[in-house]
Design goal:
- The protein has about 240 residues and is mainly beta.
- The chain has helices at about 20-30, 40-50, 155-160, and strands at about 5, 50, 55-65, 70-80, 85-90, 100-110, 120-130, 140, 145-150, 160-170, 180, 185-190, 200-210, 220-225, 235-240.
- Strand 3 (about 55-65) and strand 4 (about 70-80) form a beta hairpin.
- Keywords: Signal.
- InterPro entries: DUF5818.
């Protein structure tokens, strides 16, 4: 049961029983509608045909050093028979961010379309989230019969402040050199710029300061600046087996 598929962020399509939905309803109401990872119509139809796995046994969450930083969620669980495939984690949609910082996912998979041996089977999935919500402290993964949560450790929270950006140095800086990434977001830079100046296209890695002491944008304490790509990567797919 190996495969790779895009993350789909519409939990509403997956089939669950009414008892489980009643338990989840306060979570959905507790939390503007937020979609973390896009999916096309075909993706959404495919998710709608899936069902919750029977049980979730293990959940792990960590911050990856990537461009940009991403959240990786790993979940392991059980299904009630052979023939299940194409597992994924589907993000709950929120009206507002959860107050405890714990974001919820449904652990779903495609059940067999023909009678299959009733043998408890294992299933796992890895999900990488390209946009990490502000204030995220952990995740909770739901299955048919239970749910399990995993929290970010202090080292992961520290890691989430690390950035790896591509963009251009600009002349906007008042107290510090200014930099805009490829999305147009403004940053200011502290540290040695290795001779680079306004107009140069560069990669920047470093740590984002909690407070912008340069009074513009987010201030980055620079570890590396250069024209060559640093050891960063960008992966936004789910792996399941």
């Amino acid at each position: 049961m190996n495969g790779i598929n895009k993350g789909v962020s519409l939990f509403t399509g997956a089939r669950v029983n009414l008892r489980h939905m009643a338990a989840c309803l306060p979570l959905l109401l507790a939390a503007p509608a937020m979609v973390w990872a896009g999916g096309d119509t075909a993706d959404q139809r495919q998710s709608a045909a899936k069902s919750m796995v029977y049980r979730v046994d293990n959940v792990q969450v960590s911050i990856l050093e990537s461009y940009p930083p991403m959240l990786e969620i790993r979940a392991e669980g059980m299904v009630p028979s052979a023939g299940w495939n194409n597992a994924e984690l589907v993000a709950f949609q929120y009206i507002q961010a959860p107050p405890d910082g714990v974001y919820d996912f449904g652990f779903v998979a495609m059940p067999p379309d023909q009678p299959a041996a009733e043998v408890i089977s294992s299933m796992s999935v890895t999900y990488r989230m390209a946009v990490i919500p502000d204030g995220l402290k952990g995740v909770r993964v739901h299955a048919e019969s239970n749910s399990k949560a995993a929290m970010l450790g202090e080292s992961d929270v520290s890691q989430s402040k690390k950035v790896c950006l591509k963009g251009r140095l600009t002349e906007e800086g008042v107290e510090c050199p200014a930099f805009r990434d490829t999305q147009g977001r403004l940053y200011t830079l502290g540290g040695d710029l290795s001779g680079y100046g306004p107009g140069d296209e560069v990669y920047v890695t470093g740590e984002a300061a909690e407070y912008s002491f340069c009074m513009q944008g987010v201030t980055i304490s620079v570890d590396y600046i250069g024209a060559s790509t640093p050891n960063c990567y960008d992966v936004t797919q789910q792996n399941s087996d």
